Amino acid sequence: MTKILIIEDEPSVLDNLQDILTLENYAVVIAHNGRQGVEAALEHRPDLILCDVMMPEMDGFEVVKVLRETPTTQTIPFIFLTAKADRLDQREGMDLGADDYLTKPFRPQEVLRAIRTRLERNAALMQPYRDEAERAKTLTQQLHDNTELATMQENLLSKLSEDLREPLGNVNLALHMLGQAKTEADRDRYINVLKQEYAREIRLLKDVANLQEMLTPDNLKVLRQFNLLQNNG
């Protein structure tokens, strides 16, 4: 839901604006003076700010100056609300970073039209940055996936080396015993051991070849689930 901050010290104007925006399904945050308004903007990060000019403690010009100098709030659309129609005041507000000016008294449709216009313009201005952030996110994920794949391949080779040691040891022992065999039965027994260990080696190599084919970015999610199941077992 789009969030709008209203900074206004006149209760009747504040209540009226809050009713108008609530009926249009905006989420509304209110502040009764400029200092509260700055604090609310920093805390709630609204999508747009409506701000009176003449207020106690900190006027609207000071508010927009502070918010435009703060990185987390400097791009929030800012609309002044004022009973003053002086062009010099309007120019000062624009120079400080305000996006629009509404002169009191204003009609509900006038306020809503100004809000929609500023939100649409801000969305258009921010779209390239959102696209760039999305590209950066995608590249970061790809880098992470490639690193994970490389780690999995390294672990696979390490596991293969470890698994191959046992059958190779058994083959070596069977060959030695075959050379020492004195009966046909003994020779047949050691030959069977050699056949079994050979078949075991072939199965291991086939399993590794199948896993190598699975080590692709497209299969990474499945492999993560597979690893999770292994770890839990």
In short:
With 233 residues, this protein is an alpha/beta fold. Helices cover 69% and strands 10% of the residues. It folds into 2 domains: 3-106, Rossmann fold; 136-232, Helix Hairpins, CATH 1.10.287.
Give structural notes:
It contains seven helices and five strands. Strand 3 (48-52), helix 3 and strand 4 form a beta-alpha-beta unit. Helix 2 packs parallel to helix 3 and helix 5 (108-180) runs antiparallel to helix 6. Strands 2-1-3-4-5 form a five-stranded parallel β-sheet, sandwiched between helices. By secondary structure, the chain is an alpha/beta fold. It is rod-shaped. The two termini are 44 Å apart.
Pick out its properties.
Helix Hairpins; disordered C terminus; Rossmann fold
Instruction: Output the CATH class name of the largest domain.
Output: Alpha Beta
Rg (CA only) = 36 Å
Structural class: alpha/beta
| Distance separating the two termini | 44 Å
Beta-strand segment tally: 5
Mean pLDDT: 79
By CATH, the architecture of the largest domain is named: 3-Layer(aba) Sandwich
Helix content: 55-70%
Low-confidence blocks of residues: 228-233
Q: Looking across the biggest beta sheet, what order are the strands in?
A: 2-1-3-4-5
User: What do we call the CATH homologous superfamily of the largest domain?
Assistant: Response regulator
Order of helices and strands: EHEHEHEHEHHH
Percent of residues in β-strands: 5-15%
- Describe the main β-sheet briefly: 5 strands, parallel
How many domains in all? 2
CATH topology of the largest domain: Rossmann fold
DSSP helical segment count: 7
Could you state the oligomeric state of the chains shown? Answer: single chain
What sort of overall outline do the alpha carbons produce when their principal axes are compared?
rod-shaped
